[in-house]
Amino acid sequence: MALEIDLVTLFPAMVAAPLAASIPGRIQEQGLAAVRVHDLRAWGLGRHRSVDDAPYGGGAGMILRPEPVAAALAALRRPDSTVILLDPAGEPFRQARAEDLATRPHLVLVCPRYEGVDDRIRGMVDLELSIGDYVLTGGELAALVVVDAVLRLLPGAIEAASLEDESFARGLLEYPQYTRPAMFAGQGVPDVLVSGDHGAVRRWRLRESIRRTFERRPELLAGRAWTAEEAQLLDEVRLAEAPGGASELPEGSAGSG
Ligand code: ADE
Predict the structure, then answer these.
(1) pLDDT tens for residues 3-28?
(2) What is the pTM of this model?
């Protein structure tokens, strides 16, 4: 069963090419998903198909009016739809949400423009998503990020093994990867990777994932469920990184599972 996505934007050209290229394009050609792009102006008001107006109370810029969005949703929403507004005030978009959305039958993504949306739009959607703490000129690039992250999770989209193995699937950053040449810019490749010992390679990669996460994104480790092996590797990483012994990790983040 294919995922259907309806994307509503004032700038269809901003999203068309990225959706047609590379892996997202192939996923659609394979029939795993169908992404349709709609011009919000089709639901604009009056002869000029107006979609925005000045804010009540004054201030800079224009605000997206609620009626065109309501009309678009009336046309596109189905009983099985999840309607998503892209907005910097939305839920921070993470891998777990991408995995959730990949299981749904129909997504409608609304991309605002201008200084923002009339607040009454928020009551018409199921979910608001932000792709990060910065402000874009509109929701289009954010919608592309969400669609891309969801499409690649669809069964058959990419090799299942690479999904299981990858960054964030286990709540850890990716381990270091190498390819030829064996010596580059004076740097070799870790011996274990050419040892042919698959068990040792797997354990080394897990330790390096934990090390990298510990060094770069320690907040990801808090609250994570740890296997016995992972907890042991974390201890090794901590000992190696902090010979003094003091832990930088929040309490209770290790050995809880
Ligand atoms: N629209 C503008 N900025 C955004 C962001 N960071 N995430 C989602 N939608 C946005």
Answers:
(1) 999 999 999 999 999 999 999 999 99
(2) 0.90
CA 160 to chain centre: 18
Q: Which of 11, 136, 141, 145 to mutate to test the pocket of ligand 1 (most atoms within 8 A of CB)?
A: 136
Report domain extents, the chain: 3-160, 165-257
Are residues 130 and 159 in contact, defined by beta-carbon separation less than 8 angstroms?
A: no
Please tell me if the CB atom of residue 92 comes closer than 6 angstroms to any atom of ligand 1: no
> Does residue 136's CB lie within 6 angstroms of at least one atom of ligand 1?
yes
Assess whether the C-beta atom of 133 lies below 6 angstroms from ligand 1: no
Contact by Cβ (8 Å): 9, 143: yes
pLDDT tens per residue across span 36-63: 999 999 999 999 999 999 999 999 999 9
Protein residue closest via CA to atom 7 of ligand 1: 130
Please tell me the predicted confidence (pLDDT) of residue 8: 98
Q: How far is CA 134 from the centre of its chain?
A: 15
Residue 9 Cβ inside 6 Å of ligand 1? The answer reads: no
CATH code, residues 3-160: 3.40.1280.10
Letter string b/e over residues 136-162, b meaning 16 or more CB atoms within 10 A of that residue's CB? eebbbebbbbbbbbbbbbbeebbeeee
Quick one: CATH architecture of 165-257? Orthogonal Bundle (1.10)
**pLDDT tens, 201-225?**
999 999 999 999 999 999 999 989 9
